[in-house]
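Homework-ish question, so no full write-ups if that breaks the rules, but can someone show me the predicted structure for this set?
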Amino acid sequence: NAGVTQTPKFRVLKTGQSMTLLCAQDMNHEYMYWYRQDPGMGLRLIHYSVGEGTTAKGEVPDGYNVSRLKKQNFLLGLESAAPSQTSVYFCASSYGQAADTQYFGPGTRLTVL
Amino acid sequence: AQKVTQAQTEISVVEKEDVTLDCVYETRDTTYYLFWYKQPPSGELVFLIRRNSFDEQNEISGRYSWNFQKSTSSFNFTITASQVVDSAVYFCALSDPHSGNTPLVFGKGTRLSVIA
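A: Not a homework solution, just the prediction itself:
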């Protein structure tokens, strides 16, 4: 039981490049989330999904897109990376929304030059 | 809107001292949930505790204890006899059923350094 996994662990991009971060969970959770963590800012929600085929905007969605084609996977895309997107990205999943605990992946450190 | 305030940005203690991390929250709902997470230097986020708004009993788990007081909207976390392995950033978080586009709101975290 791996829990929540994220690929890749590290990535360096040049401004304007695109990339996709992959999150996978094997806990059969309905809900999945993408956060970014910046120094002094805590964690901020980018997008989330309440089930396969659904997505919703979080607090800081601009510049990102997501897809949930399979229940166990949640992809985060950057179409044209900007230096302001340099951050650590965390994926999380939970059985439900408000009531249930979110379990986090190990994070992806992204640097945009 | 919900808000979580962790006023202590950084705390430094000597090993074996007790330390309390403060968390104050704001919400208009009567039903909500509070969480604490630990982020050690390795970077992962580790779930510590979940508490619902109707359960004001204090919780103790080994050297960890949590004091939930609705009257002051606080959910403080105490580590007794701190150890170097407790060094981490600790996040308090709030979730409520009417949270709109922010199902879980985090505080900015408190960095705890335990010195041997």
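Now go work out the reasoning yourself. Hint: Chain B touches chain A at residues 9, 32-33, 35, 37, 43-45, 47, 50, 52, 91, 95-97, 99, 101-104, 106-109 (CB under 8 Å).
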